[in-house]
Amino acid sequence: MHRVFRAIGAALVPVALTVPLLLSAQAAPKGDVPKRDLPLIATRAAKFTATKATWMSLDVSPDGARIVFDLLGDLYTLPIAGGTATRLTSGSAFDAQPRFSPDGKRIVFISDRSGGDNVWITSLDGTDTTQVTKGNDALMLSPEWTPDGKYIVASRSGGPLGGAAKLWMWHVDGGSGIQLITQPATIKTLGAAFSADGKQIWFAARTGDWQYNAILPQYQLNVYDRETGERRVVSARYGSAFRPALSPDGKYLVYGTRQDVETGLRIRDLGTGDERWLAYPVQHDDQESRAPLDVLPGYSFTPDSRSIVVSYGGEIWRVPVDGTAPARIPFTVDADVAIGPEVKFAWRVNDSATFTARQIRDGVPSPDGTKLAFTAVNRLYVMDWPSGTPRRLTTMNVGEHMPSWSPDGRTLAFATFRDGAGGNIYSVRVDGRTPPKQLTSQAAIYRDLAFDPTGKRIASVMLNARDLVVIGTGG
Fold first, then answer.
1. Which of 190, 271, 383, 394 is the one with CA 20 to 30 A from 3?
2. Is residue 326 classed as helix, strand or coil in its secondary structure?
3. How many CB atoms within 10 Å of residue 396?
């Protein structure tokens, strides 16, 4: 599994691919990689065959005959039954999130080929490509056509740290566009999807752009009425609700949500309001980050409203709405990915027996000022001050921190810590004649140690060890 990440703002978005052949980067012959108006000129190309990939946004053509999808910044088309994909765009630009026009003749997508994210439109043969939005100081994502094919709606935020994205609408021939939802100012709106009659825009919304250690829910589905300008919330899922898709016949809504640790797709009968799982699990969502490529990759109903076509598990699937088994749509991509100049620096690594510590922590002088205790490389040292040689006072293989001197300067107290186990308070004679003595029996996080004036008691702040335990899914 080879993982490639695109860095946008505070997030790294994975676009991983599995290849049956060895991934090789080689010098690209002159003219092999198209030149774009980007500061880094492609000098190499990675050529390989891919039959699996993750985080592919895709769409189904209005006639149901083909699929368009993105992979590693290039766009491809594929017969609906599967087969070998046809490249639509190439070069060092990152092209993503394609959607067919209502007449099936053009494709809208996001590209940074101008030097920043913008909305672009291209014909199916790639010969007629035009830039819809202008400027290179905004982030764009999740474009969608209005049902009449005259306008494009996409989410726009003002730069890498420019605040929460808002739904904007532009005419296909260009112009400055109009922001659809302005209040509240903190609302973030992603993944526009039109109702069958074009009167409503469904989307996912949350308060704020993102947050550390996010607590669910983060997103809920909203509906914007294009005639009245009113907005209402239409979901209340604890695992959030995002990336809505509406069937062409107006009967169904499909959206993504988190259940336990997995992400799945729910389907709602818009007539009765009944819901059930359509596919679970699917591609893991991106709601903890800024979602720079939306919370889920794009997917699409087929024109007959009987299935959705969606990518997850490295494959493309046709999932019937009646609950029968999904059918895999096989694909093969003969990728030729443009790569910029190699960034390589030669740094000498010192492998001598001794080295200079670059970070000294918890330094504290002895009461008489003749010695210094400190932590370096997570181990406790003491030295004569100012020009002595540092020496260890223990042989323990554990982090040793927060040294504190006894009033007579003969003893040091310190706290240990080991990942997953917590730590304890120890004392040790500075002369090194006796081994360290453990003073506490309950594993915890101990910090800010201090002797009392008699030297018989030690005070410390004590925290739960779980506060620094890394929680993972591995064994």
1. 190
2. coil
3. 16
Signed CA dihedral, 268, 269, 271, 274: sign only: negative
Q: How many residues does the chain have?
A: 475
Number of other residues whose CB lies within 10 A of the CB of residue 209:
18
Query: Mind giving me the DSSP string for 375-426?
Result: EETTEEEEEETTT---EES---SSEEEEEEE-TTSSEEEEEEEBTTTBB-EE
> Contact, 441 vs 447, CB < 8 A?
no
Residues with Cβ within 8 Å of 244's Cβ and at least 6 positions away in sequence, in order, are 191, 193, 202, 203, 204, 221, 253, 254, 255
pLDDT for residue 60 is more than 60: yes
Cβ partners under 8 Å of residue 91, min gap 6? 33, 34, 35, 36, 42, 74, 113, 338
Q: Note the pLDDT of residue 470.
A: 53
pLDDT of 34 reads 42
Provide the token pair at 112: 């940074």
Contact 286, 294 (CB under 8 A): yes
Question: What is residue 468's three-state secondary structure?
Answer: helix
Cβ–Cβ under 8 Å, residues 402 and 414: yes
Structure tokens at 305: 């409203």
